[in-house]
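yo

u said u wanted the structure for the complex thing, so here. seqs first:
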Amino acid sequence: MKNNLKVQRAIKNLTQDNLAKLIGVSRQTINAMESSKYVPSTVLALKLAKVFEVKVEDIFQLEDE
Amino acid sequence: MKTRFLLPAKYKLWGWMIFIPFSIMGLFALLQNFEVQALDVEIPSLFQTDFIFDQKAKESGSTFHMISDNLTNEILGVMILLGCVLLTFSKEKDEDEFIAQKRLESLLWATFVNSILMFLCLILFYSFSFLNVMIFNLYSVFVLFIIHFNLGLRKGKRQLG
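structre next:
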């Protein structure tokens, strides 16, 4: 699964720490998601979409297997 | 995902404060056969099959009766277990779903490695030395989890900064 969390973060001018506090997770979680080491839960993905004001599919995309 | 069965984060410190001194005492008690005289008591033994060392059991012919035992080992054992439980089951300060997943991964790893240790114990130790080694096996799954989980957390934190 691909993600463009970093890009979305840059658009909103948020640091990892800011974003973490906004959605109520640790900075480690944000970092792990950005480096594709962790796939977030649906709830977390929806929260991210809300913060970035985009759709979930705009942040996360399935990779063609 | 909210993990159940977790204690508040402050208990982790208590866990360390109980686990470290009592496990040192426990090792000492095991190796030196140390016993606190004041803890010699008569206690009910629920399931006594040790007919070699216990004359009373042989005489009474039943498996339930009072035996004379020293409680040092029992108390040390319980306190070490308490330390382990507090360390294993207390939340992290910033517990979230990512840490919850790491926690479950560590638990699985610890159980797997523990089964390998048990296998080695079974084939490498016999008779009384087996029993002595099995004492460590009581706590090995907890210790393995604590090491794996906390090392994983520390590695994650280092990757950030």
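The interface with chain B takes residues 16, 24-29, 31-32, 38, 40-41, 44 of chain A (CB under 8 Å). The mean pLDDT of chain A is 90.
cya
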